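Reading a protein record of the kind used here takes only a little practice. The integers have meaning only within a learned vocabulary of local backbone shapes. With that in mind, consider the following protein and its fold in token form:
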Amino acid sequence: MRLETERLAMRPVDTADLDAIASFMSDPEVCRYLGDGKPRTRDRVARSVAFARRMWAERGFGPFAIERKGLSGGAGTENVFVGVCLLLPIARSGTDPADFEARGPEIEFGYWLARGAWGHGYATEAARAVLAWAVAGDGARQERVIAVTNPANEASKRVLEKVGMRLVGQTDAYYDAVTTLYEIGL
């Protein structure tokens, strides 16, 4: 499975991505609005990557690695890892977000970008491609996909609205926190 946009290539997250993901998920600014706001340990990222691979194998969807395409010709033609765009069962309140078996049944869409990738429109570009694939007949075929964001995360709200997600409102149903809920569906 591979999705491409003008500037980005997206493919299933793989164990080879562990170092890159662990590096940017250890950044307090990247994790500021995620869950408890604390950076992720390498062990937790490794468990997430293992679960991602299992989701792809068992359900045919999961987190995508986002890579900025290399420049054509000459040096620098390799793609550069810039983040993750995910489709996963969501952590409901009252469950451990790291307990992947306790997640769902709703499918959550989200994205995490390395700080160096902020401000380039990559989140919006990747989000459009992944959501189109998620609800299209040839993709993951989800009837409804949700996204939750910290109410203070204005940048994330703008991305979700730009890609056509509909604001539902505030909820405390996920991640043991008050979040702003968005949805998209057929």
